Amino acid sequence: MTKTSKHNPFDYLETNEEINEYLNNAYMDDDPRMFIIALGYLAKKRGMTEIAAKTGMNRASLYKALSGKGNPHFKTISKVSKALGCRLAIA
After folding, report:
1. Which one of 10, 14, 28, 41 is most buried, by most CB atoms within 10 A?
2. What is the mean pLDDT of residues 34-47?
3. The pTM is what?
4. How far apart are the C-alpha atoms of 23 and 25, rounded to whole Å?
C-alpha cells in the first residue's frame, strides 16, 4: 500500500500574482470569513513569526484574528496584507 501525503494548494502559491489572485478569489466568496481565512493560511505559509515581526503584533493574536472565528480590525487586515507583500485595492 502506497502512503500518500496531503495536498496543500498553499504550497504552490509562490509569486505575488498567484497570491493576489488567490486573495481576490477568497474576497469574492459570499462568506466574508473566507478572505480572513485565506490571509491566515498565507501568513502561516510565510511564517507567523515573520508576519508578527513585520506587523508589530504577537503571534497568538494573529492566529486568533486570522482563524476565521476572530473578527479582526481592518488595521490588522491591512498590516498582514502588507507584510505578505500584497496591496489591497478596490476596483
Report:
1. 41
2. 91
3. 0.79
4. 5
